[in-house]
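#structure-requests
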Amino acid sequence: MTLHAEERAERRAAPKPARIPSGDRPMYPSGEGLTHHWASMGETTFVAGIWALYALHRIAGRRVFRALMWPVVLVHWLTRPALREASLGYLRRQQAANRLWPHEPNWRQGLQHVALFAETLLDKLLAMAGRYPADKVRMDGAEAVAQQAISGGGGVLVTAHIGCLELCRAMAQRQPAFKLNVLVHTRHAQAFNRILQRLQPGAALNLIEVSEITVATAMLLADKVAAGEFVAIAGDRVPLHGGRTVTVDFLGSPAPLPIGPYVLASLLKCPLHFLGCIHEGDGYAMHFEPLAEQVLLPRKQREQALAEHAARYAECLARLLQRSPYDWFNFYRFWDPAHA
C-alpha cells in the first residue's frame, strides 16, 4: 500500500483536526507563515522580506542588522499574543524539564528566543548564497551519512524547525556526493528555489512542496533515494491538510508528532537518520544521528512501532535543544492538537 493510500485510510478513521482561529497568528518559523494554518502566507510579502533582509546585511553588515532587528523583534513581541504564548509555553516546559535558567522564563527569554529566530533567518540566506563561513559549521555524527552518500545509497533525514538547516550545503561542500531534497508543506518552495538559484546556481539543495504525499510524490522520492540522494522531512509539525499523529513525551508533556517520516522511510526501504542544527560558539553544529537501518511497520504492531520511532526522534530533539534551547522555532501551540 502506498503512503497516500495508508494516510487516506487512517484519516477516514481519525477525527478531523480543528482549524486555528484567525486570531492566533504566530510569527512564521523557518520561512513558513500562519493564518488559519501555520503554512499560509502571501508569497510577494515573503519574497520581498527575504530580499530586504539579505540586502540590509550586505550593505550594512551584521552589527547594523542586529541593531535594526531589535525594534522589529520588540514590535512582534508586543503585538502578537500568540507568539508570546507559544514562545513562553515552550521555554517554560524546557525549564520544568531541564532547569536551564535560574528563574521561570519571562519576557527577556522570550525576546531572546524571537531575536535568535530573526538572526537565524539571515544565516539561512547567507547559507543559501554560499556566504556563511564553512569553518563555523561543525559536523557532528555525519560520518554514517557521508559514507552512505559515497556508496550511492540515499536515505530519509527526519529533522525539525531548529537552527539553520540550510547549512546542509556545507555538508555538500565537504562531500559532493551528498544531495538533499527538503520536503516543505507550504507554497513557498518554488519561491525559495528561485531565490536559491539566484543566490547560488547549482546548489545541492532542492525544496519540494508537498501538502500530502501522493503516489506520484512517493515515486519521485523513491527515484531520488535510489539515485543516492537524501530526503529531509520535518518530524515536529503536522502537515497542511492534517494527517495521522502519535502522541509521545516531549519535554515532559504529551506532544502530537506526525507519522509521515516513518511511513515514508518504511515505503522507501532506506535508512532513517535524525538531523538537527543548533547554534554553537560563534557558529553552528549540524547533528546527525542514526535512528534505524530500515523502518519496519508490522501490521499488528504498526501503531506501537510508529510511536517508538517518534519517541526516539523526540528524545534526539530534546537532547539537542537542551544544549541550545532558543533554537526551536515552532511559534504556535505545539502541545495543543487542536492547533497543530
